[in-house]
Specification:
Low-confidence stretches: 309-314
Shape: globular
CATH topology of the largest domain: Hexokinase, domain 1
Number of domains: 2
Strand content: 25-35%
Order of helices and strands: EEEHEEEHEHEEEEHHHEHHEH
Largest sheet: 6 strands, mixed
Helix content: 25-40%
């Protein structure tokens, strides 16, 4: 019987595959990258990978990362025509897969220090090793082509995560500049969420209607501050007192001490809660193939918790 695990990352129109051994922190092997345009369904793509890699898929422990909310059996992939049935995958694999969204996968990737680079961003508390069993959770914010977050928590059965769609809660503007952004985004599409507000790029014509018109540095500071405000709200909402980990393109908003300071100022600016937020450690995370690494770590934790047995080292 194979000791391999199958790892799948479906992000919009892209699908990435890899194999990993059940041994701790095994390297990714047989990596492949496909486009959803070339396959009618995700199942077709998975079967193609099995043939191309020369492996038998049935019975392999499998973890699947999907960009989009993972709720129930049917999962619609964001920015893709694919709709995935978890039970359908289980039928193909002859085994129920572990399925999570991409924000959760990035959080699980933070448990593999060798695969990630964590740069301190702020916080007065002594950063703890992930995870350390103390009260409170860790929040990973995933800011790339969308905005999501996931919470790492401790349960009686070990480490677990909670997925969120917190990026779609209502944007709360502060000051004239942000109110102008909010007004420009408002309209027939309904309430303005944080994701829409933060995806307003530095060259967007919306800024021309604000007092920052032509002020590239001012716009950069405003965007960093807005990200800080969102992250502070997210930590308060989830109780992630052990730390915030910022993944994805959001790191580009914080290049340089001036922009990091704008982020931290708004992150901590809460009446009555500033001292609590000031202590929360914050990191920027730069990593490669973090979704696949996170999928492996999640699958390993599930099997250690009794939902299967660990394979022997390869």
């Amino acid at each position: 019987m194979s000791d391999d695990w199958l790892l799948i990352d479906i992000d919009g129109g892209n699908a990435r595959f890899a194999l990993a051994c059940g041994a701790d922190h095994a390297e990714l092997r047989q990596q492949r990258h496909y486009s959803s345009r070339d396959f009618v369904t995700a199942t077709d793509c998975i079967l193609h990978y099995g043939r191309e890699a020369g492996i038998t898929l049935r019975g392999l422990p499998t973890a699947v990362v999907i960009s989009g909310p993972v709720i129930g059996d049917t999962v619609r992939v964001a920015r893709s025509p694919w709709i995935i049935s978890v039970r359908g995958l289980a039928y193909v694999m002859d085994r129920m897969p572990a399925v999570m969204n991409d924000s959760a996968a990035k959080l699980w990737s933070d448990l593999a220090p060798s695969s990630n680079r964590h740069s301190p961003l702020g916080g007065l508390a002594e950063p703890r090793q992930l995870p350390d069993g103390s009260k409170g959770g860790y929040l990973a914010v995933n800011f790339r082509s969308g905005l999501g977050a996931a919470l790492l928590i401790h349960s009686p059965h070990g480490i677990a995560h909670a997925e969120t769609e917190i990026g779609h809660i209502a944007f709360s503007p502060f000051g004239d500049v942000e109110r102008t952004v909010w007004t420009a985004l408002s309209g027939a599409r309904g309430p303005v969420g944080w994701e829409r507000a933060l995806l307003v790029g530095r060259d967007d014509p919306i800024w021309a209607g604000t007092s920052l018109r032509g002020n590239a540095i001012g716009i950069a500071r405003a965007r960093a501050a807005m990200l800080g405000a969102f992250c502070g709200d997210a930590v308060l909402a989830t109780g992630a007192w052990n730390g915030l980990l910022l993944h994805g393109a959001g790191n580009d908003l914080l290049a340089g001490d001036q922009l990091a300071a704008a982020f931290n100022e708004r992150f901590e600016a809460r009446a009555g809660y500033a001292s609590m937020l000031r202590r929360v450690p914050r990191w920027r995370v730069e990593a490669r193939e973090e979704n696949l690494v996170g999928a492996a770590n999640f699958l390993r934790a599930r099997m250690k918790a009794g939902e299967g047995s660990l394979s022997a080292p390869c």
